[in-house]
Amino acid sequence: MNIENTKAQMRKGVLEFCILSVLKDKEAYTSEILDTLKNAKLLVVEGTVYPLLTRLKNDGLLSYRWEESLSGPPRKYYGLTEIGHTFLNELNGTWTELSDAVNLITTKKQ
């Protein structure tokens, strides 16, 4: 069994939740989102994030706007839609329940 594959699957499972959480209070462009995830030790690559952002936008959870940049091409800033905020609130509740259950099971004395 490949432990790295299992760890990658666990990270992938929470990536959508983490991206929505990054955008909870402010808009951000992709590089900022990636930096936040990397600083939290959630190892991701651009090739994973770009399709996910597109899917979240197509699902109505994110909106975006273009902004000119002084240091290069225009940047696409993503933000949560009203539906995105509602969806994130639901995910927060689910995460709390799941985290509590996993902690209960994994820390239980035998």
Automatic annotation (TrEMBL):
<protein>
    <submittedName>
        <fullName>PadR family transcriptional regulator</fullName>
    </submittedName>
</protein>
<dbReference type="InterPro" id="IPR036388">
    <property type="entry name" value="WH-like_DNA-bd_sf"/>
</dbReference>
<dbReference type="InterPro" id="IPR036390">
    <property type="entry name" value="WH_DNA-bd_sf"/>
</dbReference>
<dbReference type="InterPro" id="IPR052509">
    <property type="entry name" value="Metal_resp_DNA-bind_regulator"/>
</dbReference>
<dbReference type="InterPro" id="IPR005149">
    <property type="entry name" value="Tscrpt_reg_PadR_N"/>
</dbReference>
<feature type="domain" description="Transcription regulator PadR N-terminal">
    <location>
        <begin position="19"/>
        <end position="89"/>
    </location>
</feature>
<dbReference type="Pfam" id="PF03551">
    <property type="entry name" value="PadR"/>
</dbReference>
